[in-house]
Amino acid sequence: MRDITVLLTGCGAPGAPGIINCLRKVTERKIRIVGVDMNENAGGKGMVDAFYTVPAAKAPDFIDKVLEIAVKENTDVVLPIVTRELMKFSLARPRFEEKGIKVSVMDSDTLEIVNNKANLLCKMKELGMATPWFKVVNSLEELKEAATEAGYPEKAFCIKGAVGNGSRGVRLVDPNISRWDLFFSAKPNSMYISYEELLRTLGEKPELPQMLCMELLTGTEYSVDILADKGKILYAVSRRGLSVVTSNMMSLVIDNNEQVLSICEEVAEKLKMDGNFGFDLLYTGDEKQPYVIEVNPRLTAGVVSCAAAGVNMPYLGIKKLLGEELPVCVPNYGVTMTRHYEESFFDAEGNRIQW
């Protein structure tokens, strides 16, 4: 089987080291990995075979620069793992394909739905699928009305930007949470905020971006990683959060939750989702009903745990893009993952130091 070169964007993203390790574990061929990031000190810099700095995704020459690097490095597949890059790559995919380069990204119409939390839940509701209570808001007054509809101050609620990732723009409003306890017992990265502080913060600007007010789900958190072919599910692996910090699973277990998998597969099929992507779900407090709260239309930060359990989603996605035969893979249920920090060191010239 021929060797290939893969270009990974967002080399400094939290999920990059895990995805790189997934590709390093492949034994049927050699994979050369080119990493790019806007930060010259990106965390995954020392793990790749070649590294380049690129402009930010919002820069007008972002795609031009990545395409130039991809051609120079004889790239076979581009794996974008930064959410804000996805639409740019989707629209520019024909430019890469003209050079014989595959890009792991959904089509722009699907991205318009799944890359926007409000659009996703509205579409699911339109198609008759179960959703948590939610309301789309576009102003401070609409937010106040939605909070009342959610049952505040008797009930807690969640507020989040319709577009965003990495828990940016997400806060939990719970009148029953003690501010004293948060101050002395919780780390400063707590997602809780008082209603009054929320209104003051969002009132700093004359206009709000589109936001989503929804019921606060307090049950078990799940993530499901999927590889699909235009809605047809090829592989699906569910993982249950054991320790979750601001939506990041610091420890988890691979299980076979058919209720969760069925919900995600229905959404993927009805929306004709394609390639690698992941769902985040939360159960209600009584643990009876899980709800999809968002989609990550790319490889997720926790996908490495699926590979450790026997389903190497990043590599399977690459094989799909290259038109290769896909193997049968059954997850090794019960595999657990615990995440920890690990350092990399470089000399003054930027070369990695092994010690």
Q: Which geometry do the CA atoms define? A: globular
Mean pLDDT: 93
Structural class: alpha/beta
In N-to-C order, the SSE pattern is EHEEHEHEHHEHEEHHEEEEHEEHHE
Strand order of the biggest β-sheet: 14-13-10-11-12-15
The amount of helix comes to 25-40%
Distance between the termini: 34 Å
Radius of gyration: 21 Å
Name the beta content range: 25-35%
List the helices and strands and how they pair.
Layout lengths: L3 E5 L7 H9 L6 E7 L12 E4 L8 H11 L4 E3 L6 H13 L3 E2 L4 H7 L2 H10 L7 E4 L2 H10 L7 E5 L8 E4 L5 H7 L9 H8 L8 E5 L5 E9 L2 E14 L2 E8 L2 H13 L4 E9 L6 E7 L6 H6 L4 H9 L14 E3 L17
Parallel strand pairs: 1-2, 1-4, 2-3, 4-5
Antiparallel strand pairs: 6-9, 7-8, 7-9, 10-11, 10-13, 11-12, 12-15, 13-14
Write a structural description:
With 355 residues, this protein is α/β, with parallel strands linked by helices. It has eleven helices and 15 strands. It has a six-stranded antiparallel β-sheet, sandwiched between helices. It has a five-stranded parallel β-sheet with strand order 3-2-1-4-5, with helices on both faces. Strands 6-9-7-8 form a four-stranded antiparallel β-sheet, sandwiched between helices. The longest helix has 13 residues, at 86-98. It is globular, with a radius of gyration of 21 Å. The model has no long low-confidence stretch (mean pLDDT 93).
